[in-house]
């Protein structure tokens, strides 16, 4: 009994000496909380109605409870009262994605966001595949360029072809819409604007305004997001071997690339308008009997248009992302003069088209519309096919069975982006044509290709319904399996059939997330095949599907006509619903938050393929978190930090930890819960969140624990290979906490699923273990310490978990 007493007294003396030698802030612990999708308030995160913003602005900020504002000065007292609990801080970033009502307009940029995701979905590669990786990025950037051209071409179709050319040039349609009367060549209001070239020049202001608006939105968000410089370190981090992609100095600073792409896409949009207006006038001027001067001007316009198109493609192909260094250079001349030059060419083209041509009449559809939309569709199909070949080569070089769709997720998502662009462009054209035409049949309507594309929507919906039926059947099967598992998990509780079924159903529905690759893969393949069939049908005939099937079997003709009518109706209704949802989100904060969830998932990645995509909030959030962690750990020696991320917040936390220099990263503990790091990001973005990247993160931080539930449809285990997996993943938490009524839970415990992980006692337990692991080690024995005391004190040092 004497030896333990002597040991305790020596330990107390040693601790007293250390408390006098170390500053009061040396053992202060901080828990930096990062919320997930959908956003929240600092009051909810900190569980306190009184919170104070300690740093940041109205967009993103760090909050503390009012009682913890000066927690560092009260560190000694806090440790005496509750030594296992850190000071909580909440980083609130939800306003980066779902802030004011104007964010609802980002719905119109959905195809751009989706194609940007395809850039980051490439498979994991080795260093000897640099050229193949560059080719992959180049193909995605070209696909993004076609989407910009498609959007502006759709605006030209509506304003130039349907309104100015067809409706204003037809007496019956112009009479139905009096606001077009001054453009009509027939009627008492016919005047200076009634000539076809002048009508086209005036209508061209609509797509030009759309292009300028896209440039403005991209420039404004570029100034707010891409202009946030990340923290810079010295050679310690620059020379770090085997650095993960998200940890590279320039990964979250894409200012130069976005500026270049913005200039190129703006010029591409303006050149598309030049093509729609200038080639129409030049085609008429080449007819026999036309003025030689106008014919020469038309050829100059067409030649300049070709040169401008080549320059735009060269700018898009010339340069990709520069991640290995912080590139602060900006191609000022290119960024400034390429859009200005295109705008000047557009102005000159409008003057050329507005020249008096008394014999020019507008009949039928505007020439060139079928060629433009057909060419875009053909190029998109070819790009997706080649992209699939490149992705397959990359995956075959370094296969991973957990990678979604065997590395073909990027091409599949790029195909869906092109399909979304086609649906939106076709939807607005069909809807405007129906509105202008009414029931009179006075105009011919949009190009034939858009009608063919609308006709393939009903077969695609049948495939989607079949997939939904398969998911429902699979859910029933999984529920039966999970019922037995629930009974085993709660075998010591009285059986409750209804309760067991509810838990089993939640688990079965949560497991459906892992079926997403198959759903997206089948949908993209069917979309590609049907799109190719629609393109072939439009290229081989100038007739609509119903007209092309005329004279065949009555069943075939009836099916074609039904598909055409139903598809046109569905595409129009879909566009109306799309606009209605955006309008509702503009006025309704709850609907705006739902849209914000889409952006939380879709805009995590920087704009690498399309500059008009919604901005990357991580280019603001990751530097914020990195700066906060670096300043906290560097303010005093021995400060401990637990980076606590829920759902999408865990992805931000991992990205921020990668950005720290190694010496700081080793002083940070990572606690993730409800995390999609492996289940979603690891499978869909293997190049940056694959097994190699996550295993490296586990080695580089001091310690990492991950919590998950079987009822969580988003979060899951990290699944690190080898013996690292059990060190990071805790076994699945029980959900609900209590099966029936107990003394601790007298009321029925809810099934939490993806939310409220802090309610589980395991959360506080794992956080306490992480803090104990981070506790500064007790210094070595003093010079007057005997060998026996030195041996006993060394036994008190904390050991790794």
TrEMBL record:
<feature type="region of interest" description="Disordered">
    <location>
        <begin position="740"/>
        <end position="759"/>
    </location>
</feature>
<keyword id="KW-0472">Membrane</keyword>
<feature type="compositionally biased region" description="Basic and acidic residues">
    <location>
        <begin position="1"/>
        <end position="24"/>
    </location>
</feature>
<keyword id="KW-0812">Transmembrane</keyword>
<feature type="region of interest" description="Disordered">
    <location>
        <begin position="1"/>
        <end position="30"/>
    </location>
</feature>
<feature type="transmembrane region" description="Helical">
    <location>
        <begin position="519"/>
        <end position="539"/>
    </location>
</feature>
<feature type="transmembrane region" description="Helical">
    <location>
        <begin position="263"/>
        <end position="284"/>
    </location>
</feature>
<protein>
    <recommendedName>
        <fullName>Integral membrane protein</fullName>
    </recommendedName>
</protein>
<feature type="transmembrane region" description="Helical">
    <location>
        <begin position="407"/>
        <end position="429"/>
    </location>
</feature>
<feature type="compositionally biased region" description="Basic and acidic residues">
    <location>
        <begin position="792"/>
        <end position="801"/>
    </location>
</feature>
<feature type="transmembrane region" description="Helical">
    <location>
        <begin position="371"/>
        <end position="395"/>
    </location>
</feature>
<feature type="region of interest" description="Disordered">
    <location>
        <begin position="771"/>
        <end position="801"/>
    </location>
</feature>
<feature type="transmembrane region" description="Helical">
    <location>
        <begin position="296"/>
        <end position="317"/>
    </location>
</feature>
<feature type="transmembrane region" description="Helical">
    <location>
        <begin position="104"/>
        <end position="121"/>
    </location>
</feature>
<feature type="transmembrane region" description="Helical">
    <location>
        <begin position="559"/>
        <end position="582"/>
    </location>
</feature>
<feature type="compositionally biased region" description="Basic and acidic residues">
    <location>
        <begin position="771"/>
        <end position="785"/>
    </location>
</feature>
<feature type="transmembrane region" description="Helical">
    <location>
        <begin position="200"/>
        <end position="217"/>
    </location>
</feature>
<keyword id="KW-1133">Transmembrane helix</keyword>
<feature type="transmembrane region" description="Helical">
    <location>
        <begin position="449"/>
        <end position="472"/>
    </location>
</feature>
<dbReference type="InterPro" id="IPR029058">
    <property type="entry name" value="AB_hydrolase_fold"/>
</dbReference>
<feature type="transmembrane region" description="Helical">
    <location>
        <begin position="133"/>
        <end position="155"/>
    </location>
</feature>
<feature type="transmembrane region" description="Helical">
    <location>
        <begin position="337"/>
        <end position="355"/>
    </location>
</feature>
């Amino acid at each position: 009994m004497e030896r333990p007493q002597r040991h305790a007294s020596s330990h107390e003396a040693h601790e007293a000496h250390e408390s006098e030698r170390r500053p009061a802030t040396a053992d202060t612990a901080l828990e930096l909380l990062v919320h997930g999708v959908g956003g929240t308030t600092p009051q909810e995160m900190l569980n306190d109605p009184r919170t104070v913003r300690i740093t940041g602005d109205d967009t993103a900020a760090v909050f503390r409870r009012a009682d913890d504002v000066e927690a560092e000065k009260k560190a000694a007292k806090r440790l005496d009262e509750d030594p296992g609990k850190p000071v909580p801080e909440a980083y609130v970033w939800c306003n980066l994605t779902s802030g004011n009502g104007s964010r609802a307009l980002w719905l119109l940029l959905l195809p751009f966001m989706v194609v940007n995701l395809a850039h980051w979905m490439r498979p994991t590669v080795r260093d000897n595949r640099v050229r193949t990786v560059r080719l992959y990025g180049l193909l995605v950037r070209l696909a993004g360029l076609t989407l910009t051209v498609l959007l502006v071409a759709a605006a030209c179709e509506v304003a130039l072809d349907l309104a100015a050319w067809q409706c204003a040039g037809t007496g019956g349609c112009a009479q139905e819409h009096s606001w077009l009367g001054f453009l009509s060549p027939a009627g008492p209001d016919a005047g200076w604007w009634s000539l076809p070239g002048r009508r086209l020049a005036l209508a061209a202001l609509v797509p030009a305004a759309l292009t300028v608006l896209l440039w403005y939105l991209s420039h404004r968000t570029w100034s707010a997001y891409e202009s946030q410089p990340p923290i810079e370190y010295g050679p310690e981090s620059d020379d770090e071997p085997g650095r993960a992609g998200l940890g590279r100095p320039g990964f979250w600073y894409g200012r130069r690339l976005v500026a270049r792409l913005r200039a190129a896409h703006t010029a591409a949009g303006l050149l598309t308008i030049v093509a729609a207006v200038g080639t129409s006038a030049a085609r008429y001027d080449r007819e026999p009997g036309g003025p030689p001067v106008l014919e020469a001007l038309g050829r100059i316009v067409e030649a300049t248009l070709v040169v401008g198109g080549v320059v735009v493609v060269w700018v898009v192909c010339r340069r990709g992302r520069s991640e290995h260094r912080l590139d602060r250079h900006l191609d000022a001349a290119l960024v400034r003069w390429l859009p200005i030059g295109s705008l000047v060419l557009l102005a000159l083209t409008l003057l050329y088209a507005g020249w008096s041509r008394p014999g020019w009449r507008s009949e039928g559809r505007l020439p060139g519309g079928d060629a433009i939309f057909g060419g875009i569709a053909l190029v998109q199909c070819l790009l997706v096919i080649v992209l699939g070949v490149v992705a397959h080569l990359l995956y075959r070089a370094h296969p991973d069975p957990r990678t979604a769709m065997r590395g073909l997720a990027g091409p599949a998502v790029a195909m869906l982006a092109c399909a979304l662009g086609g649906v939106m462009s076709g939807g607005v054209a069909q809807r405007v044509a129906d509105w202008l035409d009414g029931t009179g049949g006075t105009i011919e309507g949009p190009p034939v290709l858009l009608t063919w594309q609308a006709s393939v929507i009903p077969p695609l919906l049948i495939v989607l319904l079949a997939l939904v039926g398969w998911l429902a059947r699979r859910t029933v099967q999984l529920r039966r399996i999970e019922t037995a598992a629930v009974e085993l998990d709660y075998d010591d509780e009285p059986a409750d059939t209804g309760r067991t079924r509810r838990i089993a159903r939640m688990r079965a529905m949560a497991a459906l997330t892992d079926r997403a690759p198959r759903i997206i893969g089948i949908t993209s393949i069917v979309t590609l095949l049907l799109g190719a069939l629609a393109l072939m049908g439009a290229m081989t005939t100038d007739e609509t599907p119903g007209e092309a099937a005329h004279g065949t079997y009555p069943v075939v003709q009836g099916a074609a006509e039904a598909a055409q009518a139903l598809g046109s109706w569905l595409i129009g209704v879909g566009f109306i619903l799309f606009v209605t949802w955006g309008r509702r989100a503009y006025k309704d904060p709850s609907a705006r938050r739902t849209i914000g969830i889409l952006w939380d998932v879709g805009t995590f990645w920087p704009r690498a393929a399309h500059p008009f995509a919604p901005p990357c909030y991580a280019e603001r959030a990751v530097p914020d978190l990195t700066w906060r962690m670096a300043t906290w750990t560097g303010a005093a020696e021995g400060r401990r930090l637990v980076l606590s991320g829920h759902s999408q917040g865990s992805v931000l936390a991992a990205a921020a930890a990668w950005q720290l220099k190694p010496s700081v990263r080793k002083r940070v503990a990572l606690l993730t819960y409800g995390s999609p790091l492996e289940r979603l990001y690891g499978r869909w973005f293997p190049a940056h969140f694959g097994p190699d990247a996550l295993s490296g993160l586990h080695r580089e931080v001091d310690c990492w624990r991950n919590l998950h539930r079987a009822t969580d449809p988003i979060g899951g285990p990290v699944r690190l290979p080898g013996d690292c997996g059990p060190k990071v993943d805790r076994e699945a938490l029980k959900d609900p906490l209590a099966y029936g009524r107990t003394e601790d839970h007298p009321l029925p415990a809810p099934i939490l699923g993806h939310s409220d992980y802090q309610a589980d006692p395991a959360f506080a337990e794992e956080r306490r273990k992480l803090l104990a692991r981070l506790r500064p080690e007790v210094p070595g024995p003093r010079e007057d310490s005997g060998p026996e005391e030195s041996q006993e004190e060394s036994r008190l040092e904390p050991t790794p978990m």
